[in-house]
Specification:
With 211 residues, the protein is mostly helical. The protein contains eight helices and no strands. The longest helix has 27 residues. The radius of gyration is 24 Å and the shape is elongated. The N and C termini lie far apart (97 Å). The N terminus is likely disordered.
Length: 211
């Protein structure tokens, strides 16, 4: 019977490539942020790659200003670097970065002291549980979309924000609850009221236009 080779007898060619399986395990957002917090700021680049587009979309939908939104994304990552020591070990990086983004957006609106105009509200129809919006809206024409865009822009910032986060950014209600420091139930109520207000403003604008 052949004798199995022992560990000492297994020879690895000197020119063989040693593959580290650990190196192929993608670090989580939390792990990257912990590294950044510890001083390895180069890891911020990976977080930027992962969140740049999401944050840009968030700011565009809140401000309808693409150029400004690019700058606001940069501000968020500047603040991540500046306040990295405040990141906690709870593993809630997504909630934390949206917390910073909301602060940056609020600072922007406060500085410019004018209402934002939201972007294409047609995206709101992507969500199947949008039962508070009239089915008529799903068949919106380009003219309807223009009215709906205006309606969304007229919502209070708080309502527009919760719609963008929940319906366009796909942020879970529990994370929005953390961001807004309220319960999940309160978030659902806000979303419901925001959608109802959107519907009311939308139909009022349509009636005014038809008059």
């Amino acid at each position: 019977m052949p004798v199995p080779a022992t560990t000492a007898e297994i020879q690895v060619p000197s020119d063989a490539t040693i593959v580290s399986f650990a190196a192929h395990v993608e670090a989580s957002d939390h792990e990257l942020m912990i590294a950044v917090r510890a001083g390895d700021v180069a890891q911020l680049g990976q977080l930027f790659e992962r969140y740049q587009q999401r944050l840009y979309a968030f700011f565009v939908r809140m401000t309808n200003q693409p150029a400004v939104s690019e700058d606001l994304v940069q501000v968020v990552f500047y603040r991540i670097l500046k306040y990295r020591h405040t990141y906690r070990d709870e593993g809630k990086f997504t909630a934390w970065i949206y917390h910073l983004a909301r602060k940056v957006a609020a600072d922007h609106f406060r500085k410019h002291a004018k209402a934002a105009t939201a972007t294409d509200p047609a995206d709101l129809h992507e969500h199947p549980d949008d039962d508070a919006v009239s089915p008529d809206l799903s068949a919106a024409t380009s003219d309807d979309l223009a009215i709906l865009r205006t309606a969304l822009a007229r919502l209070p910032l708080e309502h527009r924000e919760v719609l963008v986060l929940s319906r366009l950014q796909n942020v879970e209600h529990k994370e929005i609850a953390r961001l807004c420091d309220c319960s999940v139930g309160a978030v659902k109520v806000r979303v419901h009221r925001a959608l109802k207000e959107l519907r009311d403003v939308y139909f009022k604008l349509r009636r005014d236009q038809a008059a």
